[in-house]
Amino acid sequence: xxxxxxxxxxxxxxxxxxxxxxxxxxxxxxxxxxxxxxxxxxxxxxxxxxxxxxxxxxxxxxxxxxxxxxxxxxxxxxxxxxxxxxxxxxxxxxxxxxxxxxxxxxxxxxxxxxxxxxxxxxxxxxxxxxxxxxxxxxxxxxxxxxxxxxxxxxxxxxxxxxxxxxxxxxxxxxxxxxxxxxxxxxxxxxxxxxxxxxxxxxxxxxxxxxxxxxxxxxxxxxxxxxxxxxxxxxxxxxxxxxxxxxxxxxxxxxxxxxxxxxxxxxxxxxxxxxxxxxxxxxxxxxxxxxxxxxxxxxxxxxxxxxxxxxxxxxxxxxxxxxxxxxxxxxxxxxxxxxxxxxxxxxxxxxxxxxxxxxxx
Length: 360
Known about the structure:
360 residues, 0% strand, mainly alpha
């Protein structure tokens, strides 16, 4: 009963767990499925919403989590703030190390955890900022940094002998100078009163409106700008393509992430929260679920294909449904019987050992 209460009691915000679970499952879809470009008239392509957006939702939720562990709507101050920063710095190092270890499985995906660890460090100076200031930071970064990403991508280090290793170590597929915008937005969300229905509605409506405007502008750009500006800086920046690091992707996928969080918060205010309990269970242990699916992938692909690096061959095995069912089942059973996920327990234990419990 204690394990169940730990993630179903009044101290837990079910909607955030649900959003985390959806982000993990969305990344599974992006990794494991053959996905055609999104087309409103072809429902089979709608799963393309997971491509790029799931990882941005994951990063936004990192900001929410950081906000919640540092006081939520009432940020910690003084010694508690200093201890929180030390703890987050240790967690950042551990997440980065786990991410690098997952790269060595040979699974052909861009592992997000190295970038995730760096984003935790970059978030440390933002912990004392109010929600309005954090929203302003997120908007400013999303407007300005995309213009510099192409220049950063062209730096000589990426084409050097160590370029591939350097890119892997910093998770450059998720360029942190831009992605800190999503963490800042998540921090702003976490500094709000998430138990308020009004806040959830504002997140849903506001995020949805921003996403619709950004994708509308992208549709116009695709028809009018791309043929003329193809290959130019404008064409690289003024786009909502997945993983493009464009302005319209930042606002479109960022707004989508905010709207999903609002929708999950609203849904979990109803009895439906118990219907989605398995997805919430995944969301209570996102690090375990994410790392676990890559390890299982590596073992399965090596055993069946003889090579964990064959993306096309592994996708052709149709692993998505078994992975989803397995993830939901394992995480639900673990959460009901034990509570916190194994990697989450490990990270917390090491952090306590390094920083201390803070109890007198």
